[in-house]
Hints:
Elements (H helix, E strand, L loop, with lengths): L3 E6 L12 H5 L4 H22 L3 E8 L2 E12 L2 E4 L12 H14 L31 H5 L22 H7 L19
Antiparallel strand pairs: 1-2, 2-3, 3-4
Amino acid sequence: MADMLLVALLLALPPAPAAASEAARNCPLPAAASGEVFKKIDTMLADRREADGIPGLAAGIVCGSEPVWAKGYGVMALDDARPVTPQTRFRIASITKLFTATAILALVEDGVLGLDDPVQHHLDWFELRRSPDTGNEPVTIRQLLAHASGLPRDSSLTDFDRLYQPAREDAIAALPGQGLQSPPGESYAYSNL
């Protein structure tokens, strides 16, 4: 069971196949026990959702790279009674930072990039407005991951009142107009950029 991963899915998960997949058959959890374990997980998630007042959630178990169990619970939102399914798409917001950091660290492990590389060595469009207060030190990958880059919290184009996030191309085009809030590496400041 140690190799199985319980994942609260915030992305659309492909439906679990009706017949056991190769991954499910090769999973370290004995097939006879998997149904029992899945029932316990199902009960635990349903009970927690109810106890914590969570409108809805989707969860899945992945063995290797294959989903072997998935289920939705509850509804989309308090004002949206559509049921949550394993295919329900949720807004994942800053959870993407976890995936990005994991991918970057895999690239570091593979020697493709270094944590102390200036970001601009890999993204030539990464240009920021500088001032005498922020200096000319480059922003590094490590500083981006640690929220110590000096970048502002959000793009100048972000409008939270309308839940608007700019498209990637628009955010890149606006980046040279964004100024650093502090010199890179000097202090922690959460950033969505």
